[in-house]
Predict the structure.
Amino acid sequence: MLRRMIREAASGRALLVATILLAVGGGLGVVVQAVLMADVIAGAFLGGEGLSQLAGLLLALAAVAGLRAALAYFRQVAADRFSARVREDLRNRVFGRILSMGPVGTSGERSGELIATALDGVEGLDAYLAHYLPQTALAALIPFTVLIAVLAQNLLAGAVLLVTAGLLPYFMILLGRAAERRTKRQWRLLQTLSGHFLDVVRGMRTLQLFGRSRRQVEIIRKVSEAHRSATLDTLKIAFLSAFALELLASLSTGLVAVAISFGLLGGTLHLTAGLAILILVPEFYLPLRGLGSDFHAGMSGAVAAERIFALLEAPQAVATCGARRLPAGTPLEIRLRDVAYSYPGAGPPALTDLDLTWRQDETLAVVGPSGAGKSTLLRLLLGFAVPGRGEILVDGVALGDLDLDWWRRQIAYVPQQPTLFLGSVADNIRLGRPDASQEEIEKAARLARAHGFISALPEGYATQVGEGARTLSQGERQRIALARALATRAPLLVLDEPTASLDAETDAAISAAIADVARGHRALIVAHRLSTAERASRIAVLAAGSVAEEGTPQELRRHGVIYRSLVRSYYAVAEVR
Amino acid sequence: MAPLLRFLRPHIGLALLALGLAFLAVAAQVGLIGTSAYLISRAALRPSTILLLMVPIVGVQFFSIGRSSLRYLERLTSHDLTFRLLASLRVWFYARLEALPPSILEHFHSADLLSRAVHDIDSLQDFYLKALAPPLVLLLTAALVWLVIRPMAPSVAWVLAVMLILAGLPAVVQTRLGRRLGGEVLRERGLLSAAVADGVRGVAELVAYGAGAAYQEKLRSSQRRLMQAQIRLRRAVALGGALIGLLGNLAMLAALVLAIPLVREGRMPGWDLAVVALVALAAFEAAVPLPQSFQAMGQCLAASRRIFDLAQAAAPAAEPREKQLPDGTEIQVRGLTVRREGVALPALAGVDLTLSPGRHVAVVGQSGAGKTTLIGALTGCAPVTEGSVLLGGVPITEIGREDIWAMSAVISQDTWLFHVSLKENIRLGRPDATDEEVLAAVEAVRLGPLVAALPEGIDSLVGEQGARLSGGERQRVAIARAMLKGAPVLLLDEPTEGLDAVTEEGVLQEILQLAQSRSLLLVTHRLIGLEAMDEILVLSGGRVVERGTHRELVQANGLYQQLFRLQADLLQEG
């Protein structure tokens, strides 16, 4: 994990090195300070010197103190910058990865998880990067500096440090391994339990209506109690490694003190050296103890890092991307031939032997019950996924041979639940064509029947929308998305009609906008309203992953078995009339 | 801080124990270093017998073992306290919230104040461990140092004690600074998280419109701004830490400068010099966690203010003094008017309605017509401003809320799916239902194929807020839950929302089947399947503008006919 993290942290390596160098400088400052202190004390105690004789040493001591403070400050600043740099880099890569995965890997449940990974997951690395990682380096370097200094003065004291330092990793491994596994599990459990409370609080209204809300008080108490005792059991072991560390540190401080005193008694050691060693001994263990107290940071960081690396490393179906572009004005007739597709992971195939042609100058409606494969069809068409079998031909050229960017520029796409990005309404409309002029934007908005309500907004086209800013109704968002599609002036319009039932008036407004647009464009519409389907020049009825019925609305109303059942259930009420 | 301390009171014994252990651990450290310095200094004088050194040697070992054991016990105790504190905060917050009037709760929910509150509670668990304990330990340490050093050199003792307390000063300044910079960090973080969330949810559009690279650039600069704000904040923290280190070294220097003349004048034995200097350094270890502690204290206080504001935003819902039980299951609504605070027009005005067993009533109208408020009034969740709602002949205001809720099964627009198994979610309707009964409900809402396809069948987790299910599936789980409850009254708000046409028809049939002998109130804006209803109420602006059966209403020349035509015309066109 550690090695992996350092490798990933390449972008901040200079800062990490600076952090470590500053820390080593601080370590040297400790040694110098110890020697100066010992000199002053020994001079006053044994030499009987007064302030005037010691003034030089005392001033030097003050200077070292100032220098150490400066080094400590810059070390922390460098460590924080290092952490910021690495997090910035990782987050950019995570987001790049999300973009390259496209909607197939990121929709639905995954989206919440991905947002959490990109935000909190990366942020969770902060303590790991800013404290734990430099601390690990310190734990290797500072004790080494101190050890050399002590060994130069007194072999016995040095030997005590060496032996305990040798024992430390052994203890750490022995206790750490056992604790680590349990703690990691506990850590996840802790997140889940914290999630449980949030879940219960947010679902309180539901619990109340089912008469279960008061009983939850007792459940929360019980869950918390169970969690407490389980966590404490783990901590008893997890803290043992810190205990062993501290015990070794303080025992050896004591041993060193005794060793020094025997050296002094025997006359083999001078008080200056003895005091210097005593001052240095705690510094020898300090970084190691720091490692222990940053344990939680390390733990949660490791868990977060695992999730991030798993995301960055997940195997990815690379869409084969050719380089061909078709000349302008080409008919762009699209043919899906025996196309089959299954989503990665379990589950039945989404499409099986789908055969469908979207001819030049026709508006094609795709209808069918949910799960029939309508959305999958759109995803394949947009190149978000590649057919497992069969092929998609554009004027006889396989989609895989086409330049994907060029191909996507031929399509204006309106998803079922469009996203408005943080920014102005105008920015949102010009998403696909950043250089669109204000007139072009307004023209697109008029066509999408959005100009009216946009003009009525407090700042018109400059009004800020998106998460956290002004919230628009679903009908309004839908129409802005429609305007966005029209602003691209792409020859093909691919539209996934919203399913959510809006009330009749809003519904009528959107249907009318879609109808307007479909009249002037060559469109492929996944229709959830029969009214939309009925306006198309041709309808394809999908069922269980392939085309079950196909024809003009009139033909299907007469002969289409599935289509007629769809019509009937939609307007069951019509029979009464 | 007072309300937070109140939560500590039930655990006061544990808190004092943890505090005592933390202090004793620091004291042992001071003792270890001081005794060692004493030992070495005495040894340097080469006493005639080693016996003189026995006491300090034993003392050194005693302190060294004591320190680590005390630290270990302190860690366990303080974490125990932390978890207990968290548990009591959660229980208190939940119980408090649960008792609030439903309308307030609804507001909290829609404004998403609850997630933040839960997050705040999580951060309050640090209150003792990270915020409260370090300054207290520091104060105790200052007292200890004063006591230990005073017999050797009173002036040094005073200086050290004062400087230890002064170590809090940089931390205070830094907290001031941190509050402003912290606000900046929070703001930038909010912007970034909105941008990331938009980007992930809208990934299809970004890719399809070739706008991915541009958006990534936008994220990059948003992120850079966050990092810069964070670094500014951290600089203040680093400065605080460095200043405390400096102060510790200056304290040691001051001790030396004061003590050296004393030694020279023979007013202090020379061997105490090392003790004084090293104790000064050791004692400042207690000041190291201080900057963090003030930061944590600021966060805890802000969090607690938000939580207490929320929990005390309104008085708990008034319960009738003498609760009555409804006599029967008939619901009578007479001249019901509901006014919302701060809204001029009533949400409902003069509504009359009777729901008796076997009677099926639909309420239609556009969004904002008052349909949802009507269900709220029937479940005691919307205030009755004028008129009356009688449940089994008893005014709803005289019935306990749990008894009101026991009477009806509700599907509302904020029906929640919990992150437990599908089975547990459905069983919420009736906790003592057998597996067979749960499965029957699953079949009735046509979730059988889904259950068969799930890896662990009906025991599969549904994900947070039911994220692993589609919108239609979630809705059907809610219906199954309501069906299982078997309450005499069914109040359904847009139950078939999000279902495709074929499923919708089937599910509606099942609901009507189930409701045969029960009262049913169906709120809808789609005029589908309404011919089977005994009565249809057309709401507009909170008033009943038309009522009658489907047949009567399509013939009348009113709003219903208009809505119906609009819907039918969508089919006729093209």
Q: What stands out?
A: Chain A has 20 helices and twelve strands. Chain A touches chain B through 166 residues (CB under 8 Å). Residues 572-577 of chain A have pLDDT under 50 and may be disordered. The two ends of chain A are 71 Å apart (CA to CA).
